[in-house]
Amino acid sequence: MELGRRERKKQQTRQAISDVATGLFLERGFDAVTVADVARAADVAVQTVFNHFPAKEDLFFDEVGWWTGPARAIREAPADADPVDVLETQYLQEIRERLAVGHLATWKQFVRTIEGSPALLARRRLTAEELERSLTEALDERSPDHLRNRLTAALYAAAQKVLEERLMTLLPDDASPEELDEAQRELEAAVTQVFAVLRRGLG
Question: Where is the HTH tetR-type domain (predicted)?
Fold first, then answer.
């Protein structure tokens, strides 16, 4: 029971630091905020921040579902499931979860913050490469056709990029709840279209 309380306290501290950091980054820009600024605003020591987040970029890219979720979904799917169907379902689930917790409301600001920082752009490229690598490995565990698996992972990463760009055009600045709902409906229609193309291409 004592260990449980300690773990809960650690998670609460980590989440509080992450929330403070996100607010500062979106308000001022990533490069204008230091780890010391985050620590001060969160009322913790700088070392405490680093205990939870090894690098400043980790404070920004704290949500890992975008790049770890696809491989996990493939590994958890039934052996006879179509990989493209699994990836489409996982992507839709991620979108719905982000809308439910309010993350889509700040999506445009999040992307603009990335685009304004060379450090975040570099980390995003590395993250995209990690997504493709981990997804390829998960697909390889199901099928020996490595070339096809590698292509599937690369096409999924491209599809994700196209859909994120689509979301940027669908979301108004300071979107109302009604506008968020409409953007979600249109994005889900785009997901269906993009994955249909992906499915036909892999035939």
Answer: 11-71
pTM confidence score: 0.82
Residue 117 has pLDDT above 70, yes or no: yes
How does the average pLDDT of the chain come out, rounded? Answer: 90
Q: By C-alpha distance, which of 32, 37, 2 is closest to 17?
A: 37
* Contacts (Cβ under 8 Å, ≥6 apart) of 89: 73
Confidence of residue 184 (pLDDT cuts 50, 70, 90): confident
Residue type for 65, please?
Answer: G
Amino acid occupying residue 30: F
Alpha helices in the chain (DSSP H): 2-28, 35-42, 46-52, 56-60, 65-76, 83-100, 107-115, 118-142, 146-170, 177-202
Cα separation, 12 vs 17, in Å, equals 9
What residue ranges define each of the domains in the chain, with the CATH number in brackets?
2-60 (1.10.10.60), 65-202 (1.10.357.10)
Largest CA distance in the chain: 55
Residue-wise DSSP of 135-146: HHHHHHHH-S-H
Q: How far apart are the first and last CA of the chain?
A: 53
- The number of residues making up the chain comes to 203
Report whether 98 contacts 66 (CB < 8 A). no
